[in-house]
Each structure stands twice: as structure tokens, then as C-alpha cells.
Amino acid sequence: VLDHFEQRCRTSKALAQRTAEVIPGGVQHNLAFNYPFPLAATRCEGPYIWDADGNRYIDFLQAGGPTLLGSNYQPVREKVHALLDACGPVTGLFHEYEMKLAELIRQHMPNIEMFRMLGSGTEAVMGAIRLARAYTGRKWVIKVGGAYHGWSDQVVYGMRVPGTGRREAIGIPRGSTAYTQEVFPNDIGALRRKLWLNRARGGTAAIIVEPLGPESGTRPVLRDYNAQLRALCDEFGALLIFDEVVTGFRVGMGGAQGYFGVRPDLTVFGKCLTGGYLMAGGIGGGRDVMMLLAGGIGTGSRRAFVGGTLSANPLSCVAGYHAIGEMARTGAAVAAGRAGDRLCRGLNGIIDRLGLPYVAYNFGSIVHLQTSAVLLMSMRNPIKLMREHAARKHAMEEMGAAYLAHGILTLAGSRIYTSMADTDAVIDDALSRFEDVFRL
Ligand code: PMP
């Protein structure tokens, strides 16, 4: 299969060899998207993406999640073009769209009174942690093992996950993560114990979670987990940070906080926030916490320093304002969620029929395809789960390459994002391609 694929993708392969000379690993972004070699994209539209050899793929990678409206969505593209024509991508001054975007977010997530635009999810996580520490005057931060919150030192993926060899921790001095603690998903008892212990040594500033569970719900959390976190944070005076980089607007206009009916103190955004237009990251929260970013203006002289040269460029803000507006107008999350449900049902149908050791599970438009039901059952044994996950990762990447060869682009073979552009016909086409791969 791969030989044939390499033949069909000759231009991409040649570019990949050349690129690898000047770009580490041959790509500027996440290496996970590029097995067996990076495909060079030339065109995107709706549910499809085309590579440099003219091959068309059903795009379930969606650039890692931002394009809920479908790729290269025309109504947003036109607004971006109009803004570029008027003032270019950045001004250094305030632009009206910064305000309009913040107002629109507040409209959909009433919990968020104020909003700060940044460049990426990683930056937004860093900012939210700083804000939590500044607000509480405490240093400890608790995250859930296996959760991804970007690549900053203190929360980097795999930090203390048993069985993974701490691969991503190279280059991070022990001290950088000294005040970050990890608990296993769904283990409220362990979390409570950590909060108790921290109380005696200065207290916990924040608990940060992906509200669907680590890695966008690859390891799902129990239905009332988030509500329990809220109660624990209230009891121990810690802030609750929801990392809604993936879920923000993808699981609904109210985000995961709307779905679970749980109010975090701070919310971190990325991805769908701008529909994929650079740059995409932001922090939202209550006025009392957020005003710490304002410094002297209205709060005395205390200021948590967060910001950057290209933060809140009007390009991202106009894209965000219109992307979120279009998501609300079209019901994008519902449409994409239906596509995800259809795909997931179909995949499990094929898996059952062929008796394969896989399982598909989803939360709307976020679909996971994993190697076996053991993964779900071993929720009770997180160490086993994480070892299994690490061991199977390459196998899933190889499956991803086989899907690619059959015209389907996924995220490393184990994650599928559906969009509003995924009609029943697109999903059914995808299912027959998946079946072709499973029958190999
Ligand atoms: N948090 C979560 C839950 C994410 O999935 C990601 C990116 N995949 C990030 C944070 C980091 O966002 P970015 O890649 O924009 O830095």
C-alpha cells in the first residue's frame, strides 16, 4: 500500500526530502501529522484537501481541529480579504474587531466577562496559569496525566506519564515543572489528597483540565467529573481552568462548559477561535481575574504580564468574529456532530462485522479510533492504559498512512475531526474507504 502511495505522491516525497535539509523533521508544526512523509498541500475546499500531485483526500485532520466550518470557508475568507485590503494584517493600534470578537465570545459564554487575544493555545495556557497564580498568590498547579496543554515547559505532554519514557521532557530542567502536579483522569480521591497536601504548603493556584478528558477525550472523563472539579476548586480556593482549545465552539457555541453546565474561572481558547486563521489563542474569564492583565488601569499597579507583538492582530480578530458568527448562524457544531455520529456508528459497524480489535468513540465531531476496547476498559488502570496507548501509537500511525493511501487524511490514524462540510455522502464515501483499509 505504501509503495503505491509513494508513487502517487512523488512531488510531496521529493519536496519532503529537500525540506528535511532545512527544517528539522521536515515540517514546521506537529510531527504527528506527517507519517510516512509530509504531504505538500496545494488546495483546500469544504471537506477536501489536495496535495501537490493533485490527489484529493477527505480531510479529517482539519489542520488539527480549527476548520469546523469546512476548509477555506468562503464567507470568512471574504471578510479576511476585505480587512487585509483595508489595513494589512497588523496595525499595532487597537482595532474595532478586537472588541467585537470579545463581545461575541461573551454573548455565547456568559461566564466569560473579559477576553484577551493571544497567538496560540500554548500561549493562552501559559497566560491562564500565570493569571491563576497572580490572582490566588499560590504556586501549585494540578493537571491530569496525558492531557495536552501545548508545549510550554510547565505542562508539556508526557511530563510524568509512566511508560512513555518522558520523551517530551528533554530540554526541560526539573525546576520548570517543580510546581506542576499530575493526577490520573477520574481519580477525584487522588486530586483531593493533593489539594489537601498543597494546603499546608501555600495552596493550589489552579486545576487545569481538558473538559472531555485528556487529549480531547481520548481518555474520557465521567459525566460528573467536571462538576466535581468545580466543587473541589471552590472548597480549596483554587481556580478551575478549562482548556477549551479543542472544544471551544466545536462541541457547541457554549463550549464544553455550556455542555456540562460547569463554570470555569478561566477558559483557554485556540483552534476554532479564528476558524484556523493565524493566530489563534485567547483567555477568557471573570472581570476580577482578567483585570489583573490591565495593570495600573483600574486595579492599582499589580499586573500579570501577558501579551505579544502580533497578539490581537485585526486579521485574527476579524476571522474570529466572522467564524464564530458563522458557526452560530449555521449550527456548525450540530452539523459536524451529526457527521461525527454517523462516521462513528459506521466505523463500529464495520469493525463489528469484520471482527477487528478496534473501537471508535466520539463526542460529536471529535472521533477517536483506537486499537481495542482494552483502552476503554483500562480506564480503571491508568498506568496500563497509558502504556498501551504509547505502545500502540506507531501502529495507529501506520494505519493512518494506509487511510491516506485510500484518500482519507486523519490525525495520526487515531483522531478524526468532522466539519459542517461533511455531508452524509462524504461520510459514506469515507466509510467505504475505511472498510477497504480494514479488509487489507
Ligand atoms: N490545549 C489543547 C487541548 C490542545 O489540543 C492544543 C493543541 N493541540 C493546545 C492546548 C495547544 O494549542 P496550540 O497548538 O495552538 O499552541
UniProtKB/TrEMBL annotation:
Tell me, what's a Pfam family for it? Aminotran_3
Which Gene3D superfamilies does the annotation name? Answer: Aspartate Aminotransferase, domain 1, Type I PLP-dependent aspartate aminotransferase-like (Major domain)
- Please list the cofactors this protein needs: pyridoxal 5'-phosphate
Gene of origin? hemL
- Asked whether the UniProt record includes Metal-binding among its keywords, one would answer no
Q: Which UniProt keywords apply?
A: Pyridoxal phosphate
SUPFAM superfamilies xrefs: PLP-dependent transferases
- InterPro entries (alphabetical): Aminotrans_3, Aminotrans_3_PPA_site, PyrdxlP-dep_Trfase, PyrdxlP-dep_Trfase_major, PyrdxlP-dep_Trfase_small
What is this protein called in UniProt?
Answer: Glutamate-1-semialdehyde 2,1-aminomutase
One function term, GO molecular function aspect: pyridoxal phosphate binding
Q: Which family does it belong to?
A: Belongs to the class-III pyridoxal-phosphate-dependent aminotransferase family.
